[in-house]
Amino acid sequence: MAYELVRSEPRYDGAIIGVRVDTVVLPDGSQVDREVVTHAGAVAIVALDDQQRVLLIRQYRQPAGQYLWELPAGLLDQAGELPPEAARRELAEETGVRARTWSTLVDLRPSPGFSTEVCRVYQAEHLTLGDRVGPQEGEERDLQANWMPLQEAVSEVLAGRVINGLAVAGLLAAALRAGLTDDHRRAADAPWPDGSAGTPAL
Prior knowledge:
By secondary structure, the chain is α+β, with helices and mostly antiparallel strands. 18% of the residues lie in helices and 39% in strands.
């Protein structure tokens, strides 16, 4: 049962996200304010070829301040476009790859504590290679693609070298589906993903 919403105040309306403050009633009757980032949602694709290699892209992400290895992915920001259609479009736009067989791999809410974003990762198989289509704007002009064995990609996740949330979820789910395992372990005091040794930077 959802908490009672007393009021919701818009604070920001941007091209990709919005921000509002919701006031809700807790079970004990008290009221609290919660900052909410609104987001249209996204899709991502684990594209697997007949050699069980996965297609990863390397893209610069300004909030992270670095290039990240990711899955082909994109926003659900086109009116009337269904998520499977968005996945097909994004895969073709970012990599030139088309797929004959599609299935839902995993769903996730990347940051449910403050964001409405809901994502779906698809698995695409029986691939055909081609040229990228559509406009390449912003960071997408600098995008690099690389085929990697799925087992190696899983090892990269567990080693902390693939840290994009959709990629982590999608690759591990694809590995589970394929029956792959990996016993890689890292020390509890391993460096934080931003490169620091201790407390995450704000």
